[in-house]
Task: structure prediction
Amino acid sequence: MNWAEILATSLFAAGCFFFVGGAAGLLRFPDVLTRLHALTKADNLGLGLIALGAATLADNAWGGLKVLLIWLVVMLTSATCGYLLADQAHTSDLEKPK
Amino acid sequence: MTPLVLLDLVLGAVVLGLVAATLWSGSRARMTMLFIGFGGVVALVWMRLGAPDVALAEAAVGAALTGALILRAQGSVPAPLPERSRPWIIRGLVAGLSVAVFGALAWALISLDWKARPGLERVVEARLPESGVTNPVTAVLLNFRAYDTLLEMAVLLIATAAVWCLGRSSETPQLPPDDPLNLALLRPLVPLLCIVAGYLLWLGAFAPGGAFQAGAVLSGALLLLLVAGLPRAPGQMDTLRLRATIAAALLVFLGVAAATAMSEATLLQYPPHRAKDLILVIEAALTLSVAYTFLVLFQGGRPPPREVRA
Result:
């Protein structure tokens, strides 16, 4: 195992930790808004770490940049989706804990 | 046990678990979400099986677009019948057919001699240089078995015609118009999706990608515009241009077929030095047609004709 692989593996592990945290938040938090918070925050960070890990393993710079571009697009979409869902929940009165 | 075997076992278990969860979830919204998740996991399974082309198609068409179609259809289908009122004959028939298909496939897989594979792989490899592309999947789809793809496009066109015959499209559910954040997302995302579609189309010649995946990505961009409630979003009106775009792939394909039949004496046998150009032209038309076909299917009916402007 060389240094790049060790770095990538630790980044993957850290990313997975945030995904598990996001999933736990989705299951355990009481209402729509807190669940959305857990999902969007944790997934962005988790995916970012995994994308960074994949980028360190990429064969060339272009491959790594493509992976980071995917992360950027997912951040854009998940932030907007989180907002749209929260807005919908807010207007349709879903935000109260059940 | 190697870690990869473990991963495969986990993936297989997740697929089966998702199927069970989808079938027994009881709520339509939850079923749809689980089905979309199922498509994503199946795409991973295809990756593990070494079929990235199929994985891309499954993720783009199987999970994303089919999921969108099912979500869209939920609004236009009346609320589900109570559990008991569904006739048991139909349920029995569905269950019997499913078990029969599963049994036949399982039997075929078990009785297959995995060592003596049918030798098509080698034939494709041997003729690949003549095909105009270096990706064997694209070579098979657009050259060696191009008539399969031609007929597929005909099927898509007939399906679109059938949906249009069912009636007018109902109002497309839309996000609140002029939402600043949604528009801020669309401004970079839609052009980026168009670039990705073009990239996938070009990539298909030598790497996993191709017209269907590109068309799925492009239709994603079109659907985003439609759902955002933009007044000039494509596909809202039944215009000649819309119809021409949907039929473009079949028309181009038929044109190429007729031209090759006359010049080469065989249907769809491209001259090797022109093969790459012909494949690219057909794939470009395929991408557009697939994208607009999904856009029209999403609307679930024929869009209203162009309004006469005063």
User: Anything to note?
Assistant: Chain A has a mean pLDDT of 87. The CA atoms of residues 5 and 57 of chain A lie 7 Å apart. Residues 3-90 of chain A form one domain. The two ends of chain A are 49 Å apart (CA to CA).
